[in-house]
Amino acid sequence: MNPMLRKLLLALALAASLPAASQAQWREPPRTMEAAPQRYTGCRAVDGDTLACRQGRVRLRGVDTPERGERGYRAAQRELARRTRGGTVTVVPHHRDRYGRLVGDVHSRSGNVGRSMDADGYSKRRGARR
């Protein structure tokens, strides 16, 4: 086989395998915090899956919404604000993410906010369900 053709085929095979590797299944880190419910107040939606509260930032576990500039960002942010209207939520801590945010199950009067937003289609099609 022609050496140039061999290199081309090898490069194509490598390029074809890259998307599959980058879309590998995300695995949730283990629980590293006590699962004791805590009341968080003064919360506002930073984006579709993060709240800024008086006690600190909270990343919703169970949902991964679009980032700023991506399609669906504003809708997810508005929906999180609607579901946490009143500013008080109950957080069951799970772990801290690489940015130092608390990741946990966030509950409002209507139940688990992250899970319900994911079930209602606010998550990205691919990616982490934190």
From TrEMBL:
SMART domains on file: SNc
Region called Disordered, residue ranges: 94-130
Domain TNase-like: 44-130
InterPro entries for the chain: SNase_OB-fold_sf, Staphylococal_nuclease_OB-fold
Cross-referenced Pfam families: SNase (PF00565)
PROSITE patterns given in the database record: TNASE_3 (PS50830)
Segment forming the signal sequence: 1-24
Keywords: Signal
Gene3D superfamilies: 2.40.50.90
Top-level taxon of origin: Bacteria
Name assigned to this protein: TNase-like domain-containing protein
